[in-house]
Amino acid sequence: MKSNIPFFHRIAVYARRGDAMPENILSKQINHFLMKRILTRLTALLFGSLGALQAGELKLPPVFSDHMVLQQDLSIPVWGSASPGDVVSVEFAGQTKTARADATGRWMLRLDKLSASGEARALVVRAKETLTIVDVLVGEVWLGSGQSNMAGPMRTFRGNDEGLQKTLAAAPYPRIRLIKQGGAGWQLATAENVDTFSAILFAFGSRLHAELGVPVGLMTGAVGGTPSGYWLTEEMYRSDAACMAQVKEFAKTYDFASAMNGYERYMIAWKANAEKAKQSGGKVGREPTKPQQPGECVGEFGHLYAAHVLPYVPYAIRGVLWDQGEGGTGITGVDQFRVMGALIKGWRKAWGQDFPFLYMQKPSGGGTAWDLANPTTKNASPFTALPAKVPADKEGIAREVHIKIQQQPNTAMVTSTDLGGMTHPVNKSGYADRALLVAKGFVYGQKVEFSGPLYASHEIVGDKVRIKFTHVGKGLAARHADKLQGFLIAGEDKKFVWADAAIDGDCVVVSSAAIPKPAGVRYAWSSNAPWANLFNQDGLPAQTFRTDDWDTSPRAARR
Fold first, then answer.
1. If residue 17 lies in a helix (H) or strand (E), which one and from where to where?
2. Do residues 366 and 381 make contact, with C-beta atoms less than 8 angstroms apart?
């Protein structure tokens, strides 16, 4: 069945404006038989963050509770419900702001910007009744979202991570507060609460707290094994020009009938194997995913956004830390670069806030590190010699697509090639260290290099290609060997060979005696490239790139 999420969001827009939805739209979308079901889901969507509403009762959403942290240096939205027409006042830190509840009883106001404070103060909301929220701090608020690497709690990873063990041993943290969907409001960062909280987000938050010396509020909404298509509404997706353009292009060559035939044949074999496994007590593998038409999602668009992110909107935050990618997009024919672009823009529009968006690089690991003894990078792959065979054309696609996400405005990638790999990297404290570095340089304006060298441009001069980089930091450097390695070069025949490469200032000059007329250069073109050794002298690895735009994998953009 096609998702109803976008329809609900259309109703939400009208409701928030206080308008009635036009009857012609309603008549096309619903009928009397479905009305009760739709109203039930609509109530959950619109008012899930407000709890069970009763007419005339002064209510706040669960995100406003004792022990909460408000974001410093931003105007603070405060919202809830009351009797229609009621004047609601909010008092905090010497401010008093008022708003009038609309015809549905909803109200929202904004507090003026606040300075960071570890003083436990009360936020008082008055209408016919009075609500008092105590132990309210002001500092930095971050939302962590994505899939299992964000959802995974400290208790899952601390056994193999000394950094997490030290972080947990230092609990309680009186000025760090935690909230997760399904919980009962904000919690104190006690050892017990920390142990069941997101490992990577808490490790990041504890380091941020130590760095800035201000209270920190951490919010999570993450679910393991999920594609990005579940984390943005269909409206966010369908209104994105880049996504729609890729769907249109992909549909030109996609054979849906063949895909369905292959799926049906595979299903027959899967059912037979599943029955045998059931009879023998063995494990039943995952059921094959049914093909979808170009641009359609394998599940329900936006249902995880509605359940795990929307209840926070529009609570003022400093930024988002995102860890997802292994699950792809779940949308046939649209890649992660474009879906994440739509997600980032959609979330910011919903919040009414252009917050920084930091995301963990995928695939995780696969590369060597500047210093394999450093606790942050100790799980990186050891440096190796070049393989005899050059990587296949398709091998670098997934990494390239994910690296491109940082081209979205106010977005930065947390480099992970040198942090150790696997689907669930065990060195969560190392990932938090790197996320903090990116936050310091990208969000908080500290003068630190937070990225390895990134391809900027190239120039072909005779038999050589000159590659210019950004994020050279203290300068480019080869590591673990006297010479650079990991560069590929090809002529117009598109046949790549290993190249010679030398550093020249902020550039690398690439050539090969076998390629007198070069046409393309690639670097670290693989999901696993421990043989690539270009870094900046700040100790951060250069990232996969290519200068060509050759079609390397017709299937690469599907999900």
1. helix 5-17
2. yes
- What is the three-state SS of 365-433? CCECCCCCCCCCCCCCCCCCCCCCCCCCHHHHHHHHHHHHHHHCCCEEEECCCCCCCCCCCCCHHHHHH
Q: Is the peptide bond before 172 cis (omega within 30 degrees of 0)?
A: yes
Dist. CA 488–CA 394, nearest whole Å: 14
411 contacts 405 by C-beta, under 8 angstroms: yes
**Dist. CA 524–CA 545, nearest whole Å:** 7
For the chain, give the mean pLDDT: 90
Cα separation, 215 vs 205, whole angstroms: 10
Question: Which residue is listed with tokens 């050589």?
Answer: 464
What is the per-residue pLDDT across 303-345, written as a single tens digit (0 to 9) for each? 999 999 999 999 999 999 999 999 999 999 999 999 999 999 9
Alpha-carbon span 51 to 80, nearest angstrom: 10
pTM recorded for the entire structure: 0.88
Q: What is the CA radius of gyration of the chain?
A: 26
Handedness of CA 530, 493, 405, 441 (dihedral sign): positive
Q: Which helix (H) or strand (E) holds 457?
A: strand 454-461
Task: Map residue 159 onto helix, strand or coil.
Answer: helix
